[in-house]
């Protein structure tokens, strides 16, 4: 009986069955990951790669935006450093000392001293404002605009641009304009005494603007 079993196990039909099972195993081992459990692994791997690419792209865009913001802030800071401080320009001093004030404190670009214009300043060289009457800091002569001043020695600006001309923003802000008489906008300076007290010691001889 045992001999007959051995003979049946070695018959051609049994060998063909063994070979068929071997070929099936080979096909299963060579099957790509797109089938069954391998498909799930492949899908998850692709999702991870996509998420990684999106993360890198987002970080790259965030870094670029941050760099642009820093460059704009630096350019703005540099521009401010060249712009005269309005408080320092008008009063000769600034409450924000040192690096606290981002604007320039240029003593050569301060406003003209109104007390000096009214012959009332006794500070001399210690005055925080300027006693130098140059076109860059002198406002238009009120009497010239009214047709009452023809003096060639008048230190005020004798340029009448008309009441419709816009005010010079730089001169109005700091009391100084690099363009001087060549500026296309009006340089006006309101009489401080007239504005605060309602009268001026110079009377009608005052050449500064008077608010109505």
Radius of gyration, in Å, reads 44 Å
**How many DSSP helices?**
8
State the secondary-structure class: mainly alpha
Mean pLDDT: 80
Helical amount among residues, as a percent range?
40-55%
Largest sheet: none
Q: Helix and strand succession?
A: HHHHHHHH
% residues in beta strands = under 5%
Distance between the termini: 135 Å
The coarse silhouette is: rod-shaped
Total strands: the figure is 0
Low-confidence stretches: 1-9
Helix and strand topology:
Blueprint: H1 2-9, H2 12-29, H3 36-82, H4 86-91, H5 114-117, H6 142-145, H7 169-174, H8 192-197
Describe the 3D structure.
This protein is an all-alpha fold and 212 residues long. It has helices at residues 2-9, 12-29, 36-82, 86-91, 114-117, 142-145, 169-174, 192-197. The longest helix is centred in the N-terminal third of the chain and has 47 residues, at 36-82. It is rod-shaped. The model is unreliable at 1-9 (pLDDT under 50).
Keyword list:
8 helices, rod-shaped, single chain, mainly alpha, disordered N terminus, 212 residues
């Amino acid at each position: 009986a045992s001999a007959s079993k051995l003979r049946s196990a070695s018959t051609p039909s049994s060998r063909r069955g063994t070979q068929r099972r071997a070929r099936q195993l080979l096909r299963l081992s060579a099957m790509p990951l797109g089938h069954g459990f391998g498909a799930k692994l492949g899908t998850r791997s692709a999702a991870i790669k996509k998420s990684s690419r999106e993360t890198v792209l987002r970080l790259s865009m965030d870094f670029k935006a941050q760099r642009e913001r820093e460059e704009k802030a630096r350019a703005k800071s540099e521009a401010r450093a060249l712009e005269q401080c309005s408080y320092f320009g008008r009063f000769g001093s600034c409450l924000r000392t040192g690096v606290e004030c981002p604007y320039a404190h240029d003593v050569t670009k301060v406003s003209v001293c109104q007390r000096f214009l009214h012959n009332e300043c006794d500070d001399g060289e210690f005055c925080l404002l300027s006693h130098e009457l140059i076109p860059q800091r002198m406002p238009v002569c009120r009497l010239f605009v009214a047709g009452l001043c023809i003096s060639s020695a008048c230190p005020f600006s004798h340029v009448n641009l008309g009441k419709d001309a816009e005010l010079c923003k730089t001169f109005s802000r700091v009391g100084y304009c690099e363009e001087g008489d060549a500026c296309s906008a009006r340089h006006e300076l309101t009489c401080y005494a007239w504005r605060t007290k309602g009268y001026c010691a110079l009377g009608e001889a005052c050449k500064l603007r008077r608010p109505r």
